[in-house]
Write a structure and sequence with these properties.
alpha/beta, DNA polymerase, domain 1, 2 domains, 6-stranded parallel β-sheet, two-stranded antiparallel ribbon
Length: 225
């Protein structure tokens, strides 16, 4: 259970605030029956490249990394990686839709806690998708891995909010829908809420979230008690 010492709530962006499935219609229009497989490989490679580039010391920003992952996914399903198709899909990252409950849940938390994003995405991506969804007045900070040229789950990323906000780890609640991200934050001593939007198996790393919720509404209710 989360403690009463929380001062700042940090949200992962993709899969937690913003729904990656909102790209699916654009994928279907461009690639038809292969769209679902492209989406699966694209997301898998996006994560793998973030980890590999961190380990290799070969950083590129998240937008470029995501484009490279898309190029891999298209080639993996036997399609030519045309620049026009990639560009059209990458533009969709600026227009990802927030999950339906996000705005209302953030409004309930606003004023009680400092609300921020802690993400692998570069600031320009975050600023534009937040603005597209009309969340500018609800989220007060964007803390990006781009500042360190590393990617989560590097401990240095989860330690960034402590340094920037001058808070102890136990004053920070990190919220993510991604199991590996939950484990990464827990390893650094942050309080952690797993937003388990879909059934999933937790990582077997000896690290557990402080609480599990199915939506940000449920989290807001928990914090109001």
């Amino acid at each position: 259970m989360v403690s009463r010492e929380i001062k700042t709530i940090l949200f992962d962006a993709y899969g937690t605030l913003f729904d990656l499935a909102s790209i699916d219609s654009a994928l279907s229009e461009l690639y038809g029956e292969k769209a679902q497989e492209i989406a699966r490989i694209w997301r898998q490679k996006q994560l793998e490249y973030s980890w590999l580039r961190t380990l290799m010391g070969r950083y590129v920003d998240f937008y470029e990394l995501t484009g490279d992952a898309l190029a891999y996914a298209l080639e993996a399903v036997g399609l030519e990686s045309s620049s026009d198709g990639r560009k059209a899909l990458m533009q969709e990252y600026y227009r990802l839709k927030a999950f339906p409950e996000v705005a209302g849940a953030l409004s309930r938390m606003k004023g009680k806690f400092h609300l921020a994003i802690l993400s692998n995405a570069n600031p320009s991506l975050l600023e534009r998708v937040v603005s597209f969804n009309g969340l500018d007045d609800l989220l007060e900070d964007f803390i990006s891995a781009d500042e360190l040229h590393l990617y989560k789950p590097s401990p240095a990323i989860y330690q960034l909010p402590e340094k920037k906000l001058g808070l102890a780890p136990w004053n920070l609640l990190f919220v993510s829908a991604n199991t590996w991200d939950v484990a990464g934050a827990a390893a650094c001593g942050l309080q952690v809420a797993w937003a388990m939007r879909e059934p999933a198996v937790p990582e077997k790393l000896g690290l557990k979230p402080d609480t599990i919720v199915k939506s940000l509404d449920e989290l807001a209710t928990l914090l109001e008690r």
